[in-house]
C-alpha cells in the first residue's frame, strides 16, 4: 500500500504545547505516574470555575441553542461586544464588524486564510503563541519573527520590526498581554507599532485574550484605540478572563481603515458562512459575561489567588541558581531563562523530556514558542500553592543534577 502522508502545508507547523512531550506524559499517566502539569493554561483543571451566572445563563438558554445562528453570531452577544469595544475606546465598530467564533483560535485561522496568498509575509513576535505562526503557514504565508527584548521587559524591538519588513509583508501580529512572557505593552510601544503599520500599510492583528488578567493595578490599552487610519483585527474571548476555555466563545472585531478592505472583509464573510456559525451555547454566555460582575478582578487583585501564585512562582523560580525571569505583569505564564554557561542545552525539547522523565513535571520548551535559543521554557502558574511548591522543588532538584552532570555546579 502507498503510504498516506500529511499535507505539505503542515511541514512548518508545530504546536508543542500539545506536542511530543505531552504524548510522553500521557503514556506515563497510563502507567500510573502522577504528572504535575505546568504546560497549558487550562483553568478548569486547576479549579478556576467560570462565573456561576454564565453557567446558569447557558443552561437557561439551552433549549434555544439547537439551531444555526447568523454566520457572524447572534445579535445580543455581538451588541455586547460592540459595547465592550466602546469601553476600550475602539471607534467606529458596528454589529457587522463583529464575528463570533469557536474560540479566538478559529478566528485567527480565518483571518489569515482570508488574507494571505502564497509567499505573503506576516510579522509575528518571538516568542509567540504558536498558533499564530501555524496559522500563517497553513494559509500559505511566511511567518517572519520579530524579537521581543527580554532585557527591556520583553517589549517588541521596533527596529527589528522595521528591519524585517519587505514588499511582501502584509500584516503584523501583536500579542498584548503577551503569551508566553506575561508582558504588557505601554501606549508608547503600541503607538510605535501603529506608526510602522501606517507607514507600510500593514494590517494589525491584535490578540488581547488576557486583557483583564492584569496584576499590580496595571492597565491595558487596545492598540486599535490608537488610530482610525490603520486596519485592525482585534481578537478576544471568554476562555481566560472568564475561565471558560471549553465553551469556545471568542470574537474578532474589524476596525479602523475599512474602506480599502472591502474585498478582504468579503472574504471573511465567506469563510464565516462556510463554517455556518459558532456554537450557540457558548454565544449565550457572552452578554452575561461582559455585562456581569468581573470576578477576574478578585483573582488578580490584592489577596487574589492568581496574584499569590504568580508571586510564589516567581520567587521559587528565581531562587534556583542560574534561573532569571522577568516578572509578568499580566496573563498566566512566565518565560524564565536558563544561564547557558550553567545549563549548556543543545536541544530544549530533549531537556524538557528529561525533566518529565526524572521529576514528572511537564513544561513546554522555549522553541515551542518560536524562541531563537534553547535557553527558555514556559511555566503556567495555575496550580495551587502546594503543587507549585512541589513542582518547583522538583525542577530545582533536576537542575541541580543537570549542573553536576555537566560540571557547571
Outline the biggest β-sheet. Answer: 8 strands, mixed
**Which strand order do you get reading across the main beta sheet?**
2-9-8-7-6-3-4-5
Strand portion: 15-25%
SSE-based structural type: alpha/beta
Radius of gyration: 21 Å
How many β-strand runs? Answer: 15
The percent range for helix content is 25-40%
* Mean model confidence by pLDDT: 95
Principal-axis shape: globular
Low-confidence stretches: none
Distance between the termini: 54 Å
Order of helices and strands: HEHHEHEHEEHEHEEEHHHHEEEHEEEH
Number of helices: 13
Furnish the topology, listing elements before pairings.
Blueprint: H1 20-30, E1 36-37, H2 52-61, H3 75-87, E2 98-102, H4 103-115, E3 121-126, H5 130-138, E4 142-149, E5 155-156, H6 158-163, E6 169-175, H7 187-200, E7 203-207, E8 231-237, E9 249-256, H8 262-274, H9 280-291, H10 296-300, H11 305-318, E10 323-324, E11 333-334, E12 337-338, H12 348-359, E13 361-362, E14 364-365, E15 377-380, H13 385-405
Parallel strand pairs: 1-13, 3-4, 3-6, 6-7, 7-8
Antiparallel strand pairs: 2-9, 4-5, 8-9, 10-12, 11-15, 14-15
GO molecular function, one term: pyridoxal phosphate binding
Enzyme class: transferase
Organism: Undibacterium terreum
Amino acid at each position: 500500500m502507498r503510504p498516506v502522508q500529511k499535507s505539505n502545508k503542515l511541514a512548518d507547523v508545530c504546536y508543542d504545547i500539545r506536542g511530543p512531550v505531552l504524548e510522553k506524559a500521557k503514556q506515563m499517566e497510563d502507567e500510573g505516574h502522577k504528572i504535575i502539569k505546568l504546560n497549558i493554561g487550562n483553568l478548569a483543571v486547576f479549579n478556576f470555575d467560570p462565573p456561576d451566572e454564565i453557567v446558569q445563563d447557558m443552561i437557561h438558554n439551552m433549549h434555544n441553542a439547537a439551531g444555526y445562528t447568523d454566520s457572524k453570531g447572534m445579535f445580543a452577544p455581538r451588541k455586547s461586544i460592540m459595547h465592550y469595544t466602546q469601553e476600550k475606546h475602539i471607534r467606529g465598530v458596528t454589529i457587522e464588524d463583529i464575528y463570533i467564533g469557536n474560540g479566538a483560535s478559529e478566528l485567527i485561522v480565518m483571518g489569515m486564510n482570508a488574507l494571505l496568498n502564497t509567499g505573503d509575509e506576516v510579522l509575528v513576535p518571538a516568542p509567540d503563541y504558536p498558533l499564530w505562526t501555524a496559522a500563517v503557514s497553513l494559509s500559505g504565508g511566511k511567518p517572519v519573527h520579530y524579537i521581543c527584548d527580554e532585557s527591556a521587559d520583553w517589549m517588541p524591538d521596533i527596529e527589528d520590526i522595521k528591519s524585517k519588513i519587505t514588499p511582501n509583508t502584509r500584516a503584523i501580529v501583536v500579542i498584548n498581554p503577551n503569551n508566553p512572557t506575561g508582558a504588557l505593552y505601554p501606549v508608547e510601544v503600541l503607538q510605535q507599532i501603529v506608526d510602522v503599520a501606517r507607514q507600510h500599510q500593514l494590517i494589525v492583528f491584535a490578540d488581547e485574550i488576557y486583557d483583564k488578567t492584569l496584576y499590580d493595578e496595571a492597565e491595558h490599552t487596545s492598540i486599535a484605540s490608537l488610530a482610525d487610519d490603520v486596519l485592525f483585527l482585534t481578537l478576544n474571548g471568554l476562555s481566560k478572563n472568564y475561565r471558560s476555555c471549553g465553551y469556545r466563545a471568542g470574537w474578532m472585531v474589524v476596525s479602523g481603515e475599512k474602506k480599502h478592505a472591502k474585498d478582504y472583509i468579503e472574504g471573511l464573510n465567506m469563510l464565516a458562512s462556510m463554517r455556518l456559525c459558532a456554537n450557540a451555547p457558548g454565544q449565550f454566555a457572552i452578554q452575561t459575561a461582559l455585562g456581569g460582575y468581573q470576578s477576574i478582578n478578585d483573582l488578580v487583585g490584592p489577596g487574589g489567588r492568581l496574584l499569590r501564585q504568580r508571586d510564589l512562582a516567581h520567587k521559587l523560580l528565581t531562587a534556583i541558581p542560574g534561573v532569571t525571569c522577568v516578572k509578568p505583569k499580566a496573563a498566566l505564564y512566565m518565560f524564565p531563562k536558563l544561564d547557558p554557561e550553567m545549563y549548556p542545552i543543545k536541544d530544549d525539547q530533549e531537556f524538557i523530556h528529561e525533566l518529565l522523565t526524572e521529576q514528572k513535571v511537564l513544561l513546554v520548551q522555549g522553541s515551542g514558542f518560536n524562541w531563537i535559543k534553547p535557553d527558555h521554557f514556559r511555566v503556567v502558574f495555575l496550580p495551587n500553592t502546594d503543587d507549585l511548591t512541589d513542582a518547583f522543588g522538583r525542577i530545582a532538584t533536576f537542575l541541580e543534577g543537570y549542573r553536576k552532570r555537566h560540571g557547571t555546579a
